[in-house]
Amino acid sequence: MSKYIIKVNGNPYEVEVQEVGGTASRASAPATKMPAKAAAPRTAKVAQTASGNAGEVIAPMPGTVLKLKVANGETVKKGQVILILEAMKMENEIVSTADGKVTLNVSEGQAVVAHEVMATVE
């Protein structure tokens, strides 16, 4: 039996892995949670991918726009949170890709697909 430490959502777990190949296997103890170094934040800042044009804020995954953090036409800085995207029961902070005035293409409660342009910053 081999022991490994794996991380799931930033939390380390010690697990034992037994090879099953014709030999009788015995039940192993459940995985034990290792003490975490720091608590994980409830929201995560999501960096935009380079798949869009400069100034485009692209949806990194499918989800629902939970909250708009800026108004249409507002001046924003690069890295400023523009909106909160809920995906897989997680709240993801979507940030500006550049400095400038933001034009929103989405509204609160709207579902988006991966790689959809949610806003532009010019």
From TrEMBL:
InterPro entries: Biotin_BS, Biotin_Carboxyl_Carrier/Decarb, Biotin_lipoyl, Single_hybrid_motif. Pfam families: Biotin_lipoyl. It comes from the Bacteria. The keyword Aminoacyl-tRNA synthetase does not apply. Keywords: Biotin. Gene3D superfamilies: 2.40.50.100. SUPFAM superfamilies: Single hybrid motif. The keyword rRNA-binding does not apply. This is Biotin/lipoyl-binding protein. It comes from Ruminiclostridium herbifermentans.
